[in-house]
Design goal:
The protein is mainly α and 226 residues long. It is built from 10 helices and 4 strands. A 4-stranded mixed sheet has the order 2-1-3-4, covered by helices on one side. Helix 4 packs antiparallel against helix 5. The longest helix has 35 residues. It is globular, with a radius of gyration of 17 Å. 37% of the residues are buried. The mean pLDDT is 94.
């Protein structure tokens, strides 16, 4: 019997990995449905019904479809609140204050961390896979932008174990895909390892079983193209 939850897109996509990590933390069974972007499947009429902007991931369960990875993660936490890790969006007794403490760092990830880190990841990881040359000027420009964000993170993580306090939450999880891409490249790993508190934080969360499973999914060879 197939899993009732389907995530559309390749595990190597940071946004797909974000959703997969959330589902694994919540112990919600799911299946990954491949989308061959090189063949334009993400722009097909059937896929655009799931994701009107033609991007991955898209999410579908027995109730609805959702697009945008962070929105999907919030939906998973709310809809499957009684499964797996029940505090990804805070503890019930912490109310709106606890939720806001998490949401502000999720927003920081989307607005401040993701743009430069994804630009770097594209140039160093995805451009070569697409047969494109790496533009080191773009890498260097975005490293400078990202360093300012990471300095703020370093200070925050000197004050608390995780972004929103002393428990792992969605505020930490949403950062994991791009941080993995940075930490795995010799010329960008120092952005993480040279900051003591950020390095400690990454060592802790990257060892979570859910994330190890995501990395395992990403390492599965993709089917060869005929």
């Amino acid at each position: 019997m197939s899993a009732p939850v389907t995530v559309y897109g390749p595990a190597i996509s940071p946004a797909v990995a974000r959703v997969a990590a959330c589902l694994l933390e919540k112990d919600v069974p799911f299946q990954l449905q491949p989308v061959d972007m090189s063949k334009g499947e993400h722009k097909s009429p059937s896929f655009l019904k799931l994701q009107p902007f033609g991007q991955v991931p898209a999410f579908k369960d027995h109730l609805t479809t959702v697009f945008e990875s962070r929105a999907i993660c919030r939906y998973i936490c709310d809809q499957y609140s009684d499964r797996g890790n029940r505090t990804l969006l805070g503890r019930e007794e912490d109310g709106a204050v606890g939720r806001a403490a998490i949401e502000q760092w999720i927003e920081s990830e989307a607005q401040a961390f993701n743009p430069p880190s994804l630009a770097i990841a594209f140039q160093l990881t995805f451009a070569p896979l697409m047969g494109r040359a790496t533009d080191m000027a773009v890498v260097e420009q975005n490293q400078a932008k990202l360093a300012k964000v990471l300095d703020v993170y370093e200070q925050r993580l000197a004050e608390s174990q995780y972004f929103a306090g002393d428990e792992f939450t969605l505020a930490d999880l949403v950062h994991m895909p791009n941080t993995e891409l940075l930490a795995s490249k010799p010329n960008t790993a120092g952005l993480i390892t040279e900051r003591k508190n950020l390095s400690r934080w990454w060592d802790e969360i990257s060892g979570r079983p859910s994330w190890k499973k995501v990395v395992e999914l990403q390492s599965v060879p993709r089917p060869s193209k005929s």
